[in-house]
Structure of tubulin-glutamate carboxypeptidase:
Amino acid sequence: MAEQEASGLQVLLRTLQSSSDRESILTILQLLGDLLSGGTDRRIRYMISKGGSEALLQTLVDTARTASPDYDILLPLFRLLAKVGLRGLGAVLGIGNTMVTKTDNGSAVMELTFKQRRAEDKKFGQKALELEALDVTLILARKNLCHSQNLLHCLWALRVFAASVTTAAMLGINGAMELLFKVITPYTQNRTRIIRAATEVLAALLKSKSNSRRAVNRGYVVGLLRLHQDWHSHDTANTYVLIRRGLLLCLKHIAALRSGREAFLAAQGMETLFSTTQNCLDDKSLEPVISIVLQILRQCYPKSPLPLVTASSAYAFPVPGSVTSDPPCVLTEEDFEDDGDEEVDKDSDSEDVKEEDDDLETDVNKLTSKPGPDRPEEELRQYEAMCLELSCSFEDLESKPGDDLSFEETQYANHHHIPTAASLKRHCLSKDQLSWGQEREDTGRTSLLSTVKMGRSSVHLASGKAPGMNPYQNAQSSGLGIDSSGSEIPDIQAFLNEDAWDIDAMSCPRMSASFSNSTRPRDATEVINKLLQTHPQHIPFHDPCLYMAKARRTRSVADFKMMAFPDLWGHRPPPSAQPMLERKCGIQRIKIFEDIRRLLQPSDIINKVVFSLDEPWPLQDTASDCLRFFSKFESGNLRKAIQVREFEYDLLVNADVNNTQHQQWFYFRVSGMRAAVPYRFNVINCEKPNSQFNYGMQPTLYSVKEALLGRPTWIRMGHEICYYKNHYHQSAAVTGGASGKCYYTLTFAVTFPHDEDVCYLAYHYPYTYSALMTHLDILEKSVNPKQVYFRQEVLCQTLGGNSCPLVTITAMPESKSADHVEQFRQRPYQVITARVHPGESNASWVMKGTLEFLVSSDPVARLLRENFIFKIIPMLNPDGVINGNHRCSLRGEDLNRQWLSPRAHLQPTIYHAKGLLYYLSSIGRSPVVFCDFHGHSQKKNVFLYGCSIKETLWQAESTVGTSTLVEDVSYRTLPKILDKLAPAFTMSSCSFLVEKSRASTARVVVWREMGVSRSYTMESSYCGCNQGPYQGLQFGTSELEEMGAMFCLGLLILELKSVSCSHHLLTRAATLLNAEEEVLDHYLQRCSSSSSSITSELDDEPACLEEIDYSTDSSSDQEGSFSELDRQIQECAFNKEEGDEEEEGPGQGRKASP
Ligand SMILES: [Zn+2]
C-alpha cells in the first residue's frame, strides 16, 4: 500500500477520535465503510495495524456516553466494528486449507478449515473490554429492546466481542445472558432476525465455561430445551432453521460441562432431541439442526466402561523381566468426567499450536555420530554360523551344474511363478493338478520385466461389477453344492459340522468326544485328505497337510487346539481386484442413532453375551438362534461377543498379551448364520482416532462353503462401514495409563453367502506363523539346489518357544573353482525383515511375494541371486502373530522400539537380528539395502521411510551445521525407482525424516549404528491405492505379493545405476534388456532423469465428512456463522429498509445489490 494512502488512513482515524463534529464523523465513517467493503482482508488487517480497532471503539464509547446517543453515528460504527472484529478473528484463526467435500445431497461445497496462526488483532475483545465498549454496548442493547434495528446492531457487536472467551465471561458477569433471554422468545414470525442474532450471541457466550456453569445453575437447560421444542414443532416449513440451530448450539456448549450434561439428562434432553429429530433425518434442509443434535446426543450419552472384567489381555504369559506396558498412545479426552466445573476459562487463541516438527531430531551430534556396538565383539562370532555362505567350499559341487533341464522342468516347474497381480499366470504344483486353474487362465511364463512393461495398464478390474457388490453373488446363483466344474459335492454339511479343525484330535480325546461320531474320521489328517480328494484345491506354495504338521509345533500362550480353516486350507486371490467401498451418505449418523436408540428404546435389546474368552469354554448353547463365535486359533483374538439385537453383535477384541491395549487387529470365526440377512457387527474397543474404514476399506471374509465349492478366497466384504468415537471410556486406574481413554467403534454389516456356513472375518488377510513355516518348507523344496542356494535356519527361539526363521537366498557358485567360489562369497548383502508388528499381516503378503520371486526362475531373480546374498527374517515377532496381538511381543512391548539396546533374554529376535547386522558390519559386509516391511493403517498406497540428516534439519528449520554437512543423496534412489516400477508404490508419501520418537526403530538404528544409508521401513496400506493403475482399488493379496516382487526388481535396478555395478552384471542386464525390448533401459532412463525435488506428504486423508470424534470442537459452526454475520452486515449497509419479516431459510442468502 502506498505510503501516502497509509498516512491518509492514519489522519482519518485520528480525526475520528478527536473530532466532535457530527458531519465529519459521519463522513469519515462513510469513507471507512467504503474502503473496507471494497477491499480485501488485507486492507482490514492494515487498518487494524494502524490502530483502527482502538479508534472505532473509542468513538463508540464517546458517542454512546452522551445524553442522547446519536444512532446515525452508532449504527455505521457498529457495522464497522463488527467487520473489523470479524477480520481480527479471521486472522486469529487463520484460514487454512480449502478443500472440497461432498454434502449429503451430493453437491460439492468448499469448506474452509481453520488453522491457528499468529493473530493480527487477537486482542480485539481485550481492547473492547479495556475501553469499556462492552459495557456501553450492553447498555445500548438494554435501552433498545424494542427498537429492532438498533438492537440488531448491538447484537452484532456483542457477537464479535463474545468470540473471545475471556470477554464472553465478562459479558456473562455483566448480565448479557439474562438480556438475551429477554430477546429470545418462543416461536414467532416477528423479529426473527433479532432472535437469531441473539441465539448466536448466547451460543458464543456459552463457550465460556463460567457462563455455561451459570446457565446450568439458573436452569437455562430446561428453558433452552423448551424453546427448541417450541420452534421445532411450529416451524413446520423449516423457515427458521438457523434459530433452531442457534438454540441447539447453546445446549451443545453447555453439554461440554459435566454439570451441563447432568442437567440435560435430568431434563429428559436425550429423549426430547432424539424424538424431535427421528422423523426428519432425511430432510436435507434440516441438516444444520440434525448435525448439532447428533453432537449433543453423543456428548451426553452416559459414558460407561467397556463390558470387560479387565482391560488387561485375556491371555497372560510369564515372561522374564518386568513387563512395562506402554503408556496409552491414544488421544485422551480432556473434557471427560473430570472436566471439573472449576476449570478456568482461557482463550484458545493464546495457546501455541504444538508443531509435529517438535519430534524431529535436531541434535546434529546424534544425527551424525555412530555409536559403538551394544555388545562385546566376541559375541558377534556366533553369527558366523548364520553366514555359512562365507565359508562353504562347495567341495561336492558338480563342475557343470544347472544343465539338468528335464529335472528342472518337471520337479521345479514352479520356478516360473512370479507373484504379480497384473499377470494372470498362476503357479501349479504339478501338471495333473490343474483343475482349479480354470478361473484364471494360465498364459504361460511371464517375466517380471514384461509384467512391468504392461503392468501399469493391465489391472485386472472386474468388468461391469458394481462397486461394493458381493463377489460371492455369482457363486450363489450357481447354486449350493455345485463346484466350479459343475459336479455335485457331497457331504459339505458334514464337514461343516466339524466345529473347528482340530490340530491333534488323536492326542486330545476330550475334544474329539464332543464331536458327532457319524462321518468324522478321528484323525484330522484323514479329514483333510478326504476333503482334498473330494474337493481338490491346489494353492501355490501351500499344502494343508504340511500346514497341519507345522501348526502342531506352533506354541501359543492359550495352547490353541484348533486351526482356522482358511489358514489350513489356503487362500487363492480372487479373480479380480475389488474396488473401495463407496461410503453411503449419512451412514455414520444412522448407526449412531441406532446406538442411542439402545438407551432410549430398549425394548428390542437382547444384550446377551454369546462368546467370551473370560468364561469357561464353551459358553454358547448351540441350540439358540444366535451366531456362534470362536477365536481360539492362531492369530485369532476375539475376546467377547454380545448379541445386542436379533441381527446385531457388539464385539470386543483382546488386548495384546501382557498389555491393556492395542486393539485393532481382529480375526474370528462365526457360524450359525442365515444367508441374505445383513448382520451388523460393532467392534467397540478400537483405539485409533481414525481408520481407513472411513475411506473405502472393507474387512476380509472367508467362507468355508465357498472354499469347498472351489473358491478358497479371502475377499473384502461388508457394507455400511464406518468408524467413530463411541461412549465407552476406561478410567486411568484400569488402563494403567496417566489418564483415562476413549474408544472407537468399527461397525460393518455382512450378508453371508450361505445358510449355516462357517465364515471367518478379519481386519486384513491373515497370515499366520504356521503359514510362514509351511511356505518356507515348500519354497525350499521348490528350488533346484544346484542353482539356488536356499538355506533356512533358526535365528533364535522366541520367548514363547517358537523358532524365528532366518532365510538365506543366493545363487550357487557357477562351479567349485576358486574364482567362482570367491565371486559367490563376495556378493554384497541385502537384508529384509518383516512383521515386527503382528497386526500388519499385509507385510507378510509382501514378504511372501519377495520370497517367491527371489527363488523363481525369472531372469531378474537369477541376476539378483547371482549378484547378492539375501538375508531375510520374514517374521520378527512370531509370538505376537501366533497369539493374535496387534502390536507387541509377549512382554507387551513394541519390538520396533527396542532396537537401541535389545536384550537377548527379553527381545531375542531383535537382539539377534541386530547382532547379525552387527556381524556383517564388523566384517565390512554391511548390506546395500536394509528394509523392514510394515503395514500402515492411516494412509493409502505403498511407500518408504528412510533417513536423511539434511532433510531432517531442513524440515526442522535448523541451520546448525547444515552448510558443512555432506550427505550422499542415494537414499532417494530406491524409492524413486520403485515409484516408476511398482503400480502400488508412490514417492509422494515417502519421508526421510529422523524423528526422536523413532530413535529405537530398525530403520533409524540400522542407519545410524551400522552406517547403512539405505535403511528403510516399507509401509503398505491396509486399504489400497489412491493413485496409479490401482487407483480406487483395495489391495488384494496379489497386489501385495506383486509389491514384494517389484521391490526385488527395484534392488536390481538400484545396483545397475550404482557406480560399483560390475561390468559382468551390466552385460547380463543388457542381454536381458534386449530380450525384454528395452523395458529396463526405458525405466533406467526415466529414473535417472527424474528430478530430486523434495516431495512432501500431501496425501493425508481429508477430514471425514461426518465427525468421527464429537468431542473435538469443530470450528465449522463458528466459521459458518461468521461468514453469515458478515453477509448480514454487508446486506444491511446497502439496504436500510430491512424489516423483520424476511425469510431465513438456509441457503437463501440475499445477494448484496450495490
Ligand atoms: Zn508397523
Residues 720 and 748 are 5 Å apart (CA to CA). The chain has a mean pLDDT of 79.
